[in-house]
Predict the structure.
Amino acid sequence: MLTIFTTHRQQTATLQTQLYNAHYRRIYNTCLRIIGSPPDAEEAMHDAFLKIFAHVHKITGEKAFYAWSQSIAIRTAIDRVRKKKIYFEPVENLAVIDETPAEEDPAAWSVEAIKQKLMALPAGYRIILSMRLFEGCSFQDIAGALKIKESTVRSQFARGRQKLLQLLNSK
């Protein structure tokens, strides 16, 4: 009986290792884009994997697993931001940003430049931009996850996008 239990534990550990190795970069990058701090993103990634391993037996299919694990990573990262007490600025307290369109030359921007400038944004902008642009969340989903009004999400997205463009176009 003990060998059967040991074999099952070994198989579970092997499957968990395979899942981790196949998905840790994606989960880490999701957490990093939302949190903005590599050590905190790493901890959030590990927390997300603990949640994933606890319930992975309920998921069937690779596409279902991908979407499910991504949502766990997003929620775990948001929980970590809340725990660190990084709050979203109320819309009325945000600095006014010039509404004239910035010069957009996406060909001139490197991926590293975009990542660097995104991390330079205030937490509220960075989180909303990351969730919308990289994770594909709707405004309604973002509002629900962050427990803020959808109008606040839309406003911060527009302002954050404008601020990101300004940073990308500045020398």
